[in-house]
Amino acid sequence: MPAQFLRFGLVGVAGFLVDAGLLRLLLAAGFGYYGGRAISFLSAATTTWILNRSFTFRRDAPSAFAHPATEWLSYLGLMLFGGVANYGAYALAIETSETVRAHPEIGVAFGSLAGMVINFWTSKYLIFERPKQGS
Q1: Residue 130 in contact with residue 57, Cβ under 8 Å?
Q2: Would you say residue 135 lies in a domain?
Q3: What is the C-alpha to C-alpha distance for residues 30 and 124, in angstroms, rounded to an integer?
Q4: Residue 125: is its pLDDT beyond 90?
Q5: Average confidence (pLDDT) over 123-129
Q6: 71 close to 127: Cβ distance less than 8 angstroms
């Protein structure tokens, strides 16, 4: 599991780059700190789903889900648990620090760390490595 957690962390870095980079672009385009972050978070979560299913939790056996779209929707739904911690840490940092308001990617990093353990557990045990029925 340590190697798998390391791969999960590497995928998280890719998700962070998507999240922070897109947020920066959306802020420049006139989106606010919160609306822009909702869009960038969804984009990052989609990126991490793709990478986690093909890199972190890759397997030879077929998915427990009938269709990749079903798996993606389930993944996004479960990421909301970690997303609450993520978004809460981000919002707290934005509201309490001028430095973070000037560099919102710092808030994205705080949020990413806050949600990481929750998201690893839900990804591993509820999406990608679900026990088979009757086991």
Answers
A1: no
A2: no
A3: 37
A4: no
A5: 85
A6: yes
Q: What is the pLDDT of residue 134?
A: 54
Q: Note whether residue 134 is domain-resident.
A: no
Has residue 92 been placed in a domain? yes
Give the CA-trace dihedral at 81, 85, 91, 96, to 10 degrees. 170
What 3 state SS string does 42-101 have? HHHHHHHHHHHHHHHCCCCCCCCCCCHHHHHHHHHHHHHHHHHHHHHHHHHHHHHCHHHH
CA torsion angle 44 61 63 117 (round to 10): -50
State the average pLDDT for the chain: 89
Q: How many domains, the chain?
A: 1
Domain-embedded: residue 133: no
Which run of H or E residues covers position 23?
A: helix 2-28
Domain that holds residue 119: 2-128
Quick one: how far is CA 97 from the chain centroid? 23
Q: What is the pTM of this model?
A: 0.81
Q: Following CA atoms 4, 122, 22, 10 in sequence, which dihedral angle do they give, to the nearest 10 degrees? A: -10
Token pair for 21: 């980079």
Which tokens in the block code for residue 29?
């385009």
